[in-house]
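// run 5 | inverse folding | seed 20
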Protein backbone atom coordinates (compact mmCIF):
# COMPACT_ATOMS: atom_id res chain seq x y z
CA UNK A 1 0.00 0.00 0.00
CA UNK A 2 2.99 2.30 0.50
CA UNK A 3 3.91 1.71 -3.15
CA UNK A 4 0.33 2.42 -4.20
CA UNK A 5 0.39 5.73 -2.33
CA UNK A 6 3.87 6.73 -3.46
CA UNK A 7 3.43 6.09 -7.17
CA UNK A 8 -0.29 7.03 -7.33
CA UNK A 9 -1.07 3.68 -8.95
CA UNK A 10 -4.84 4.25 -8.80
CA UNK A 11 -4.49 7.45 -10.83
CA UNK A 12 -2.00 5.85 -13.21
CA UNK A 13 -4.42 2.98 -13.76
CA UNK A 14 -7.15 5.46 -14.77
CA UNK A 15 -4.84 7.11 -17.30
CA UNK A 16 -3.74 3.74 -18.68
CA UNK A 17 -7.38 2.61 -19.05
CA UNK A 18 -8.14 5.69 -21.16
CA UNK A 19 -5.12 5.01 -23.36
CA UNK A 20 -6.02 1.36 -23.95
CA UNK A 21 -9.67 2.11 -24.75
CA UNK A 22 -8.68 4.92 -27.10
CA UNK A 23 -6.22 2.73 -28.99
CA UNK A 24 -8.76 -0.10 -29.19
CA UNK A 25 -11.17 2.16 -31.09
CA UNK A 26 -8.75 2.68 -34.04
CA UNK A 27 -9.20 6.49 -34.03
CA UNK A 28 -7.54 7.54 -37.26
CA UNK A 29 -8.87 9.27 -40.37
CA UNK A 30 -7.19 11.55 -42.90
CA UNK A 31 -9.73 14.35 -42.58
CA UNK A 32 -11.22 16.67 -39.99
CA UNK A 33 -13.64 15.37 -37.39
CA UNK A 34 -16.22 18.08 -36.69
CA UNK A 35 -14.40 21.39 -36.21
CA UNK A 36 -11.00 19.92 -35.50
CA UNK A 37 -9.91 19.89 -39.16
CA UNK A 38 -9.64 23.65 -39.22
CA UNK A 39 -7.97 23.67 -35.79
CA UNK A 40 -5.39 21.19 -37.10
CA UNK A 41 -4.76 23.47 -40.07
CA UNK A 42 -4.15 26.37 -37.65
CA UNK A 43 -1.60 24.26 -35.74
CA UNK A 44 0.12 23.43 -39.02
CA UNK A 45 0.26 27.10 -40.01
CA UNK A 46 1.58 28.02 -36.56
CA UNK A 47 4.52 25.69 -37.04
CA UNK A 48 5.15 27.05 -40.54
CA UNK A 49 4.81 30.79 -39.77
CA UNK A 50 5.31 31.14 -36.02
CA UNK A 51 1.99 32.98 -35.75
CA UNK A 52 -1.53 31.99 -34.72
CA UNK A 53 -3.67 32.37 -37.82
CA UNK A 54 -7.42 31.78 -37.81
CA UNK A 55 -9.36 30.69 -40.86
CA UNK A 56 -12.96 31.68 -40.34
CA UNK A 57 -14.41 28.85 -38.27
CA UNK A 58 -12.90 29.16 -34.79
CA UNK A 59 -14.95 30.53 -31.91
CA UNK A 60 -12.62 29.27 -29.12
CA UNK A 61 -9.31 31.02 -28.68
CA UNK A 62 -7.26 27.77 -29.07
CA UNK A 63 -4.07 29.28 -27.59
CA UNK A 64 -1.76 26.72 -25.96
CA UNK A 65 -3.62 23.90 -27.69
CA UNK A 66 -2.13 25.06 -31.01
CA UNK A 67 1.40 25.13 -29.60
CA UNK A 68 1.02 21.58 -28.29
CA UNK A 69 -0.36 20.42 -31.64
CA UNK A 70 2.49 22.17 -33.47
CA UNK A 71 5.00 20.42 -31.19
CA UNK A 72 3.52 17.03 -32.09
CA UNK A 73 3.80 17.90 -35.80
CA UNK A 74 7.43 18.85 -35.24
CA UNK A 75 8.15 15.58 -33.43
CA UNK A 76 6.17 13.11 -35.54
CA UNK A 77 5.56 14.84 -38.86
CA UNK A 78 2.21 16.08 -40.06
CA UNK A 79 -0.84 13.87 -39.98
CA UNK A 80 -4.31 14.34 -38.55
CA UNK A 81 -3.65 11.47 -36.13
CA UNK A 82 -0.39 12.98 -34.89
CA UNK A 83 -2.06 16.25 -33.99
CA UNK A 84 -5.00 14.49 -32.35
CA UNK A 85 -2.54 12.51 -30.23
CA UNK A 86 -1.79 15.72 -28.36
CA UNK A 87 -5.40 15.73 -27.12
CA UNK A 88 -5.06 12.11 -26.00
CA UNK A 89 -2.02 13.08 -23.93
CA UNK A 90 -4.02 15.81 -22.19
CA UNK A 91 -6.90 13.34 -21.69
CA UNK A 92 -4.54 10.96 -19.87
CA UNK A 93 -3.31 13.78 -17.62
CA UNK A 94 -6.90 14.82 -16.97
CA UNK A 95 -7.90 11.30 -15.90
CA UNK A 96 -4.89 11.12 -13.56
CA UNK A 97 -5.71 14.52 -12.07
CA UNK A 98 -9.41 13.72 -11.66
CA UNK A 99 -8.65 10.64 -9.55
CA UNK A 100 -6.31 12.65 -7.34
CA UNK A 101 -8.88 15.43 -6.99
CA UNK A 102 -11.62 13.02 -5.90
CA UNK A 103 -9.33 11.38 -3.36
CA UNK A 104 -8.35 14.80 -2.02
CA UNK A 105 -11.92 15.47 -0.84
CA UNK A 106 -12.19 12.44 1.43
CA UNK A 107 -13.42 9.91 -1.13
CA UNK A 108 -11.89 6.44 -0.72
CA UNK A 109 -9.20 5.56 -3.23
CA UNK A 110 -11.19 2.72 -4.79
CA UNK A 111 -14.33 4.85 -5.00
CA UNK A 112 -12.31 7.70 -6.50
CA UNK A 113 -10.87 5.31 -9.08
CA UNK A 114 -14.28 3.92 -10.07
CA UNK A 115 -15.72 7.41 -10.24
CA UNK A 116 -12.88 8.57 -12.46
CA UNK A 117 -13.32 5.60 -14.77
CA UNK A 118 -17.05 6.32 -14.99
CA UNK A 119 -16.21 9.67 -16.56
CA UNK A 120 -12.94 8.90 -18.35
CA UNK A 121 -14.32 5.76 -20.06
CA UNK A 122 -17.66 7.31 -20.95
CA UNK A 123 -18.50 7.52 -24.67
CA UNK A 124 -18.38 11.33 -24.56
CA UNK A 125 -14.93 11.51 -22.99
CA UNK A 126 -13.43 8.74 -25.15
CA UNK A 127 -14.66 10.31 -28.37
CA UNK A 128 -13.44 13.81 -27.51
CA UNK A 129 -10.08 12.43 -26.32
CA UNK A 130 -9.14 11.33 -29.84
CA UNK A 131 -10.20 14.50 -31.64
CA UNK A 132 -8.52 17.91 -31.68
CA UNK A 133 -11.61 19.62 -30.27
CA UNK A 134 -11.15 22.04 -27.38
CA UNK A 135 -13.35 20.29 -24.79
CA UNK A 136 -10.70 18.09 -23.16
CA UNK A 137 -8.29 21.04 -23.01
CA UNK A 138 -10.98 23.13 -21.30
CA UNK A 139 -11.79 20.38 -18.81
CA UNK A 140 -8.10 20.04 -17.97
CA UNK A 141 -7.92 23.77 -17.23
CA UNK A 142 -10.92 23.59 -14.90
CA UNK A 143 -9.62 20.52 -13.07
CA UNK A 144 -6.15 21.98 -12.51
CA UNK A 145 -7.79 25.07 -11.02
CA UNK A 146 -10.09 22.95 -8.84
CA UNK A 147 -7.16 20.91 -7.58
CA UNK A 148 -5.24 24.08 -6.66
CA UNK A 149 -8.29 25.48 -4.86
CA UNK A 150 -8.77 22.30 -2.83
CA UNK A 151 -5.09 22.25 -1.84
CA UNK A 152 -5.37 25.89 -0.77
CA UNK A 153 -8.35 25.05 1.44
CA UNK A 154 -6.53 22.20 3.18
CA UNK A 155 -3.25 24.13 3.64
CA UNK A 156 -2.65 25.06 7.27
CA UNK A 157 0.19 27.51 6.53
CA UNK A 158 -0.61 30.84 4.86
CA UNK A 159 2.40 30.56 2.60
CA UNK A 160 1.24 27.22 1.23
CA UNK A 161 -2.31 28.48 0.72
CA UNK A 162 -1.04 31.52 -1.18
CA UNK A 163 1.16 29.33 -3.35
CA UNK A 164 -1.71 27.05 -4.31
CA UNK A 165 -4.00 30.00 -5.07
CA UNK A 166 -1.36 31.55 -7.34
CA UNK A 167 -0.93 28.15 -8.98
CA UNK A 168 -4.69 27.86 -9.57
CA UNK A 169 -4.92 31.34 -11.14
CA UNK A 170 -1.79 31.06 -13.28
CA UNK A 171 -2.54 27.60 -14.69
CA UNK A 172 -6.17 28.41 -15.33
CA UNK A 173 -5.26 31.64 -17.11
CA UNK A 174 -2.79 29.82 -19.39
CA UNK A 175 -4.70 26.61 -20.00
CA UNK A 176 -7.95 28.52 -20.39
CA UNK A 177 -6.60 30.05 -23.59
CA UNK A 178 -7.73 26.84 -25.34
CA UNK A 179 -11.37 27.34 -24.35
CA UNK A 180 -12.48 30.62 -22.84
CA UNK A 181 -15.27 29.18 -20.68
CA UNK A 182 -12.57 27.45 -18.60
CA UNK A 183 -11.56 30.90 -17.30
CA UNK A 184 -14.51 30.65 -14.93
CA UNK A 185 -12.04 28.81 -12.73
CA UNK A 186 -9.91 31.91 -12.13
CA UNK A 187 -12.85 34.34 -12.29
CA UNK A 188 -15.36 32.44 -10.11
CA UNK A 189 -13.84 29.40 -8.39
CA UNK A 190 -10.79 31.15 -6.96
CA UNK A 191 -12.84 34.09 -5.56
CA UNK A 192 -15.09 31.49 -3.91
CA UNK A 193 -12.06 30.06 -2.14
CA UNK A 194 -11.02 33.55 -1.06
CA UNK A 195 -14.43 33.98 0.52
CA UNK A 196 -13.89 30.77 2.50
CA UNK A 197 -10.43 31.95 3.56
CA UNK A 198 -11.46 35.54 4.26
CA UNK A 199 -10.44 35.22 7.91
CA UNK A 200 -6.78 34.80 6.93
CA UNK A 201 -5.75 38.33 5.97
CA UNK A 202 -2.48 37.54 4.22
CA UNK A 203 -4.10 34.81 2.12
CA UNK A 204 -7.02 37.05 1.20
CA UNK A 205 -4.84 39.95 0.06
CA UNK A 206 -2.36 37.81 -1.88
CA UNK A 207 -5.15 35.75 -3.46
CA UNK A 208 -7.05 38.87 -4.46
CA UNK A 209 -3.91 40.27 -6.09
CA UNK A 210 -3.35 37.04 -8.00
CA UNK A 211 -6.98 36.97 -9.12
CA UNK A 212 -6.75 40.58 -10.32
CA UNK A 213 -3.60 39.77 -12.27
CA UNK A 214 -5.37 36.77 -13.82
CA UNK A 215 -8.37 38.89 -14.76
CA UNK A 216 -6.10 41.46 -16.44
CA UNK A 217 -4.39 38.69 -18.40
CA UNK A 218 -7.77 37.31 -19.51
CA UNK A 219 -8.96 40.75 -20.57
CA UNK A 220 -5.78 41.30 -22.57
CA UNK A 221 -6.24 37.94 -24.30
CA UNK A 222 -9.82 38.80 -25.25
CA UNK A 223 -8.78 42.18 -26.63
CA UNK A 224 -6.05 40.52 -28.68
CA UNK A 225 -8.50 37.90 -29.91
CA UNK A 226 -11.04 40.44 -31.20
CA UNK A 227 -8.39 41.97 -33.44
CA UNK A 228 -7.32 38.74 -35.14
CA UNK A 229 -8.19 38.43 -38.85
CA UNK A 230 -10.78 35.78 -39.70
CA UNK A 231 -11.64 35.00 -36.10
CA UNK A 232 -15.35 34.24 -35.62
CA UNK A 233 -16.70 36.10 -32.56
CA UNK A 234 -19.30 34.46 -30.36
CA UNK A 235 -21.55 37.14 -28.81
CA UNK A 236 -23.25 36.43 -25.50
CA UNK A 237 -26.68 37.18 -26.92
CA UNK A 238 -27.86 36.77 -30.49
CA UNK A 239 -30.30 38.99 -32.34
CA UNK A 240 -32.99 36.30 -32.54
CA UNK A 241 -33.13 35.41 -28.87
CA UNK A 242 -35.75 32.84 -27.91
CA UNK A 243 -36.13 32.33 -24.14
CA UNK A 244 -38.29 29.24 -24.60
CA UNK A 245 -35.72 27.69 -26.92
CA UNK A 246 -32.84 28.54 -24.59
CA UNK A 247 -34.55 27.12 -21.50
CA UNK A 248 -35.59 24.01 -23.39
CA UNK A 249 -32.04 23.42 -24.60
CA UNK A 250 -30.69 23.91 -21.08
CA UNK A 251 -33.16 21.44 -19.56
CA UNK A 252 -32.33 19.01 -22.34
CA UNK A 253 -28.62 19.27 -21.56
CA UNK A 254 -28.96 19.02 -17.77
CA UNK A 255 -31.19 15.95 -18.06
CA UNK A 256 -28.44 14.36 -20.13
CA UNK A 257 -25.91 14.53 -17.28
CA UNK A 258 -27.31 11.50 -15.34
CA UNK A 259 -27.12 9.48 -18.57
CA UNK A 260 -23.56 10.60 -19.36
CA UNK A 261 -22.62 9.53 -15.80
CA UNK A 262 -24.77 6.38 -15.90
CA UNK A 263 -22.41 4.12 -13.88
CA UNK A 264 -22.71 6.55 -10.94
CA UNK A 265 -26.30 7.75 -11.22
CA UNK A 266 -27.57 4.18 -11.69
CA UNK A 267 -26.22 3.00 -8.33
CA UNK A 268 -28.83 5.19 -6.65
CA UNK A 269 -31.72 3.51 -8.49
CA UNK A 270 -32.34 0.81 -5.84
CA UNK A 271 -32.57 3.55 -3.22
CA UNK A 272 -35.73 4.76 -4.95
CA UNK A 273 -37.45 1.61 -3.69
CA UNK A 274 -36.21 1.87 -0.11
CA UNK A 275 -39.10 3.62 1.62
CA UNK A 276 -38.05 6.95 3.15
CA UNK A 277 -40.48 8.13 5.83
CA UNK A 278 -43.19 5.51 5.45
CA UNK A 279 -43.11 4.99 1.68
CA UNK A 280 -45.15 7.97 0.48
CA UNK A 281 -42.06 9.64 -0.93
CA UNK A 282 -41.12 6.41 -2.69
CA UNK A 283 -44.53 6.22 -4.34
CA UNK A 284 -44.42 9.89 -5.32
CA UNK A 285 -40.94 9.70 -6.86
CA UNK A 286 -41.75 6.48 -8.70
CA UNK A 287 -44.90 8.10 -10.08
CA UNK A 288 -42.82 11.05 -11.37
CA UNK A 289 -40.51 8.66 -13.23
CA UNK A 290 -43.46 6.70 -14.67
CA UNK A 291 -45.26 9.83 -15.89
CA UNK A 292 -42.08 11.23 -17.45
CA UNK A 293 -41.41 7.99 -19.34
CA UNK A 294 -44.97 7.80 -20.66
CA UNK A 295 -45.01 11.44 -21.77
CA UNK A 296 -41.54 11.20 -23.34
CA UNK A 297 -42.43 8.08 -25.33
CA UNK A 298 -45.80 9.35 -26.53
CA UNK A 299 -44.59 12.84 -27.51
CA UNK A 300 -41.07 12.13 -28.77
CA UNK A 301 -41.99 12.95 -32.38
CA UNK A 302 -43.76 16.23 -31.55
CA UNK A 303 -41.70 17.62 -28.66
CA UNK A 304 -37.99 16.98 -29.29
CA UNK A 305 -37.01 18.62 -26.00
CA UNK A 306 -38.70 15.73 -24.17
CA UNK A 307 -36.61 13.11 -25.95
CA UNK A 308 -35.64 9.95 -24.17
CA UNK A 309 -32.01 9.41 -23.22
CA UNK A 310 -29.59 10.12 -24.77
CA UNK A 311 -31.31 13.49 -24.79
CA UNK A 312 -28.78 15.69 -26.60
CA UNK A 313 -28.53 13.56 -29.70
CA UNK A 314 -30.36 15.48 -32.42
CA UNK A 315 -27.91 18.12 -33.57
CA UNK A 316 -24.20 17.65 -33.11
CA UNK A 317 -24.59 15.08 -30.34
CA UNK A 318 -21.54 12.89 -29.68
CA UNK A 319 -23.51 10.27 -27.73
CA UNK A 320 -26.81 9.85 -29.52
CA UNK A 321 -29.29 7.38 -30.91
CA UNK A 322 -27.22 6.95 -34.09
CA UNK A 323 -24.26 5.46 -32.22
CA UNK A 324 -21.84 7.86 -33.94
CA UNK A 325 -21.14 11.57 -34.02
CA UNK A 326 -24.40 12.92 -35.45
CA UNK A 327 -23.05 16.29 -36.51
CA UNK A 328 -21.79 14.73 -39.74
CA UNK A 329 -25.21 15.62 -41.25
CA UNK A 330 -25.16 12.88 -43.88
CA UNK A 331 -28.47 11.64 -45.23
CA UNK A 332 -29.89 8.33 -44.13
CA UNK A 333 -27.67 7.66 -41.11
CA UNK A 334 -29.19 4.51 -39.57
CA UNK A 335 -30.37 4.35 -35.98
CA UNK A 336 -28.28 2.47 -33.43
CA UNK A 337 -30.51 2.86 -30.36
CA UNK A 338 -34.25 2.42 -30.71
CA UNK A 339 -37.14 3.41 -28.45
CA UNK A 340 -36.87 0.35 -26.22
CA UNK A 341 -33.18 0.96 -25.52
CA UNK A 342 -33.80 4.66 -24.94
CA UNK A 343 -36.63 3.92 -22.54
CA UNK A 344 -34.46 1.57 -20.49
CA UNK A 345 -31.60 4.10 -20.37
CA UNK A 346 -34.02 6.81 -19.29
CA UNK A 347 -35.45 4.68 -16.49
CA UNK A 348 -31.99 3.84 -15.17
CA UNK A 349 -30.45 7.32 -15.41
CA UNK A 350 -33.37 9.50 -14.32
CA UNK A 351 -34.52 6.85 -11.83
CA UNK A 352 -31.07 7.05 -10.28
CA UNK A 353 -31.40 10.82 -10.04
CA UNK A 354 -34.69 10.40 -8.18
CA UNK A 355 -32.95 7.81 -6.00
CA UNK A 356 -30.57 10.56 -4.91
CA UNK A 357 -33.59 12.58 -3.79
CA UNK A 358 -34.89 9.57 -1.88
CA UNK A 359 -31.57 9.17 -0.05
CA UNK A 360 -31.49 12.88 0.78
CA UNK A 361 -34.97 12.71 2.33
CA UNK A 362 -34.40 9.76 4.64
CA UNK A 363 -32.60 9.84 7.97
CA UNK A 364 -28.86 9.33 7.51
CA UNK A 365 -27.40 6.09 8.81
CA UNK A 366 -23.73 5.77 9.70
CA UNK A 367 -22.03 3.43 7.20
CA UNK A 368 -19.64 0.73 8.24
CA UNK A 369 -16.13 1.93 8.96
CA UNK A 370 -13.85 1.46 5.94
CA UNK A 371 -10.39 0.02 6.03
CA UNK A 372 -7.96 2.62 7.31
CA UNK A 373 -5.49 2.23 4.44
CA UNK A 374 -8.19 3.07 1.88
CA UNK A 375 -9.52 6.22 3.52
CA UNK A 376 -8.33 9.73 2.77
CA UNK A 377 -9.02 12.06 5.71
CA UNK A 378 -11.74 14.58 4.97
CA UNK A 379 -10.16 17.98 4.52
CA UNK A 380 -13.02 19.77 2.74
CA UNK A 381 -16.47 20.03 4.28
CA UNK A 382 -19.80 19.93 2.46
CA UNK A 383 -20.32 23.61 3.25
CA UNK A 384 -17.00 24.46 1.59
CA UNK A 385 -17.83 22.34 -1.44
CA UNK A 386 -21.16 24.16 -1.84
CA UNK A 387 -19.41 27.53 -1.81
CA UNK A 388 -16.82 26.22 -4.27
CA UNK A 389 -19.23 24.52 -6.68
CA UNK A 390 -22.46 26.49 -6.72
CA UNK A 391 -21.15 29.87 -7.99
CA UNK A 392 -19.09 28.13 -10.69
CA UNK A 393 -22.04 25.97 -11.76
CA UNK A 394 -24.43 28.93 -11.87
CA UNK A 395 -22.00 31.03 -13.89
CA UNK A 396 -21.46 28.12 -16.29
CA UNK A 397 -25.20 27.58 -16.71
CA UNK A 398 -25.71 31.30 -17.40
CA UNK A 399 -23.09 31.13 -20.15
CA UNK A 400 -24.89 28.13 -21.62
CA UNK A 401 -28.15 30.08 -21.57
CA UNK A 402 -26.51 33.00 -23.33
CA UNK A 403 -25.21 30.62 -26.01
CA UNK A 404 -28.66 29.15 -26.53
CA UNK A 405 -30.10 32.67 -26.87
CA UNK A 406 -28.37 32.90 -30.25
CA UNK A 407 -31.55 31.78 -32.03
CA UNK A 408 -33.52 28.70 -32.96
CA UNK A 409 -30.58 27.09 -34.77
CA UNK A 410 -28.24 27.27 -31.75
CA UNK A 411 -28.14 24.03 -29.77
CA UNK A 412 -26.46 23.04 -26.53
CA UNK A 413 -24.56 19.92 -27.49
CA UNK A 414 -23.84 17.17 -24.99
CA UNK A 415 -20.12 18.05 -24.96
CA UNK A 416 -21.02 21.39 -23.35
CA UNK A 417 -21.83 19.46 -20.16
CA UNK A 418 -18.30 18.06 -19.88
CA UNK A 419 -17.03 20.72 -17.45
CA UNK A 420 -19.96 20.05 -15.10
CA UNK A 421 -19.48 16.28 -14.99
CA UNK A 422 -16.56 16.26 -12.47
CA UNK A 423 -18.63 18.35 -10.05
CA UNK A 424 -21.59 15.98 -10.40
CA UNK A 425 -19.20 13.05 -10.02
CA UNK A 426 -17.49 14.35 -6.88
CA UNK A 427 -20.75 15.25 -5.17
CA UNK A 428 -22.58 12.01 -6.00
CA UNK A 429 -19.72 9.62 -5.14
CA UNK A 430 -19.04 11.30 -1.83
CA UNK A 431 -22.77 11.46 -1.08
CA UNK A 432 -23.14 7.72 -1.75
CA UNK A 433 -20.09 6.93 0.36
CA UNK A 434 -21.41 8.86 3.35
CA UNK A 435 -25.15 8.16 3.12
CA UNK A 436 -25.48 4.69 1.55
CA UNK A 437 -22.30 2.59 1.67
CA UNK A 438 -18.59 3.15 2.07
CA UNK A 439 -18.00 1.10 -1.08
CA UNK A 440 -19.45 1.65 -4.50
CA UNK A 441 -21.36 -1.50 -5.45
CA UNK A 442 -20.12 -4.12 -7.89
CA UNK A 443 -22.80 -3.12 -10.40
CA UNK A 444 -20.94 0.16 -10.92
CA UNK A 445 -18.00 -1.83 -12.31
CA UNK A 446 -20.32 -3.67 -14.69
CA UNK A 447 -21.85 -0.39 -15.85
CA UNK A 448 -18.42 1.20 -16.33
CA UNK A 449 -17.35 -1.71 -18.52
CA UNK A 450 -20.63 -1.57 -20.45
CA UNK A 451 -20.32 2.16 -21.15
CA UNK A 452 -16.64 1.72 -22.06
CA UNK A 453 -17.51 -0.99 -24.59
CA UNK A 454 -20.19 1.23 -26.08
CA UNK A 455 -17.77 4.18 -26.14
CA UNK A 456 -15.08 2.16 -27.91
CA UNK A 457 -17.59 0.93 -30.48
CA UNK A 458 -19.12 4.37 -31.06
CA UNK A 459 -15.68 5.96 -31.45
CA UNK A 460 -14.58 3.22 -33.84
CA UNK A 461 -17.77 3.50 -35.89
CA UNK A 462 -17.44 7.28 -36.13
CA UNK A 463 -13.88 7.12 -37.44
CA UNK A 464 -14.80 4.22 -39.73
CA UNK A 465 -17.36 6.47 -41.42
CA UNK A 466 -14.77 9.23 -41.81
CA UNK A 467 -12.30 6.75 -43.32
CA UNK A 468 -15.03 5.61 -45.72
CA UNK A 469 -15.58 9.22 -46.84
CA UNK A 470 -11.86 9.61 -47.52
CA UNK A 471 -11.90 6.35 -49.52
CA UNK A 472 -14.83 7.66 -51.60
CA UNK A 473 -13.00 10.93 -52.21
CA UNK A 474 -9.90 9.05 -53.39
CA UNK A 475 -12.02 6.89 -55.68
CA UNK A 476 -13.80 9.82 -57.30
CA UNK A 477 -10.65 11.87 -57.73
CA UNK A 478 -9.04 8.85 -59.43
CA UNK A 479 -11.98 8.92 -61.84
CA UNK A 480 -11.37 12.60 -62.60
CA UNK A 481 -14.06 14.10 -60.35
CA UNK A 482 -12.57 17.04 -58.41
CA UNK A 483 -13.38 17.47 -54.72
CA UNK A 484 -15.14 20.77 -55.53
CA UNK A 485 -17.79 18.79 -57.45
CA UNK A 486 -18.77 16.51 -54.57
CA UNK A 487 -20.48 17.15 -51.23
CA UNK A 488 -18.51 14.88 -48.90
CA UNK A 489 -20.03 16.51 -45.83
CA UNK A 490 -19.33 19.88 -44.30
CA UNK A 491 -16.07 18.83 -42.60
CA UNK A 492 -14.50 17.64 -45.84
CA UNK A 493 -15.98 20.61 -47.72
CA UNK A 494 -14.28 22.95 -45.26
CA UNK A 495 -10.93 21.33 -46.06
CA UNK A 496 -11.61 21.70 -49.79
CA UNK A 497 -12.54 25.37 -49.42
CA UNK A 498 -9.35 26.11 -47.48
CA UNK A 499 -7.28 24.77 -50.38
CA UNK A 500 -8.52 27.68 -52.50
CA UNK A 501 -9.05 30.40 -49.88
CA UNK A 502 -7.44 31.61 -46.66
CA UNK A 503 -10.71 31.46 -44.76
CA UNK A 504 -14.26 30.20 -44.85
CA UNK A 505 -16.92 32.60 -46.09
CA UNK A 506 -18.58 33.30 -42.73
CA UNK A 507 -20.78 36.41 -42.28
CA UNK A 508 -19.84 36.59 -38.58
CA UNK A 509 -16.23 37.60 -39.36
CA UNK A 510 -15.60 41.21 -38.36
CA UNK A 511 -11.87 41.57 -39.16
CA UNK A 512 -11.30 42.39 -41.97
CA UNK A 513 -14.63 44.00 -42.74
CA UNK A 514 -14.72 42.76 -46.34
CA UNK A 515 -13.96 39.11 -45.48
CA UNK A 516 -17.48 37.90 -46.21
CA UNK A 517 -18.67 37.97 -49.80
CA UNK A 518 -22.33 37.34 -50.42
CA UNK A 519 -22.77 34.80 -53.20
CA UNK A 520 -26.51 35.35 -53.50
CA UNK A 521 -29.00 32.51 -53.35
CA UNK A 522 -27.47 29.05 -53.60
CA UNK A 523 -28.34 26.91 -56.65
CA UNK A 524 -31.50 24.89 -56.28
CA UNK A 525 -30.76 21.19 -55.78
CA UNK A 526 -32.81 18.25 -54.68
CA UNK A 527 -30.36 17.91 -51.76
CA UNK A 528 -29.07 21.02 -50.04
CA UNK A 529 -25.45 21.41 -49.01
CA UNK A 530 -25.12 21.86 -45.25
CA UNK A 531 -23.29 25.15 -44.56
CA UNK A 532 -22.87 25.54 -48.31
CA UNK A 533 -22.64 29.33 -48.04
CA UNK A 534 -19.32 28.89 -46.16
CA UNK A 535 -17.72 27.03 -49.07
CA UNK A 536 -18.33 29.03 -52.29
CA UNK A 537 -15.67 27.03 -54.17
CA UNK A 538 -17.63 23.80 -53.72
CA UNK A 539 -20.31 23.28 -56.39
CA UNK A 540 -21.41 19.69 -55.95
CA UNK A 541 -23.06 17.58 -58.60
CA UNK A 542 -22.62 14.50 -56.41
CA UNK A 543 -22.85 13.82 -52.71
CA UNK A 544 -22.32 11.00 -50.20
CA UNK A 545 -25.24 9.33 -48.47
CA UNK A 546 -26.18 6.29 -46.40
CA UNK A 547 -29.37 6.12 -48.48
CA UNK A 548 -28.87 4.85 -52.04
CA UNK A 549 -32.11 6.50 -53.23
CA UNK A 550 -31.45 9.95 -51.78
CA UNK A 551 -31.55 13.06 -54.00
CA UNK A 552 -31.59 11.95 -57.68
CA UNK A 553 -30.54 8.39 -56.95
CA UNK A 554 -27.27 6.49 -57.29
CA UNK A 555 -24.28 7.80 -59.22
CA UNK A 556 -22.09 5.43 -61.27
CA UNK A 557 -19.47 4.93 -58.58
CA UNK A 558 -18.84 1.94 -56.35
CA UNK A 559 -20.00 2.27 -52.74
CA UNK A 560 -17.62 1.92 -49.80
CA UNK A 561 -18.34 -0.41 -46.90
CA UNK A 562 -17.20 0.30 -43.36
CA UNK A 563 -17.20 -1.79 -40.19
CA UNK A 564 -19.80 -1.15 -37.49
CA UNK A 565 -19.01 -2.70 -34.14
CA UNK A 566 -21.99 -3.87 -32.05
CA UNK A 567 -24.18 -3.71 -35.16
CA UNK A 568 -25.73 -6.56 -37.13
CA UNK A 569 -24.06 -5.71 -40.43
CA UNK A 570 -21.40 -3.42 -41.93
CA UNK A 571 -22.39 0.06 -43.03
CA UNK A 572 -22.28 1.41 -46.57
CA UNK A 573 -21.67 4.86 -48.01
CA UNK A 574 -23.00 5.62 -51.50
CA UNK A 575 -22.46 8.38 -54.03
CA UNK A 576 -25.73 9.95 -55.16
CA UNK A 577 -26.60 12.56 -57.77
CA UNK A 578 -27.37 16.13 -56.71
CA UNK A 579 -28.57 17.10 -60.20
CA UNK A 580 -30.81 15.31 -62.72
CA UNK A 581 -28.91 13.15 -65.16
CA UNK A 582 -29.80 15.48 -68.06
CA UNK A 583 -28.05 18.44 -66.35
CA UNK A 584 -24.80 16.69 -65.49
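// decoded
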Amino acid sequence: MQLVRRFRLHALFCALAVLLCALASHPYANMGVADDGTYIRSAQRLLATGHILYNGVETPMLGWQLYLGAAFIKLFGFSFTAVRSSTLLVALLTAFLLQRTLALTGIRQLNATLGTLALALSPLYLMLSVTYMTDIFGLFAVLVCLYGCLRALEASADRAAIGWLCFAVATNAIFGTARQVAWLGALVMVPSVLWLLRGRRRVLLAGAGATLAGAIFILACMQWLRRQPYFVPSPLFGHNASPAHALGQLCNLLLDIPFLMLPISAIFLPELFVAPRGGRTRIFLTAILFVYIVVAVLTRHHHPLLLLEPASGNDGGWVGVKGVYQGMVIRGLPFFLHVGSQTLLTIVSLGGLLGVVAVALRTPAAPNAPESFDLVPETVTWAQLRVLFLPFSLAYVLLLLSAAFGGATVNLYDRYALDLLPLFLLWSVRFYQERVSVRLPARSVVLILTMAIYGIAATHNTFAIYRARVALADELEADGVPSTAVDYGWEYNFQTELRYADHLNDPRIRVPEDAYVSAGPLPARSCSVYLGDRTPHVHPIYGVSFDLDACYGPAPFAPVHYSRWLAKSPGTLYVVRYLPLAKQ
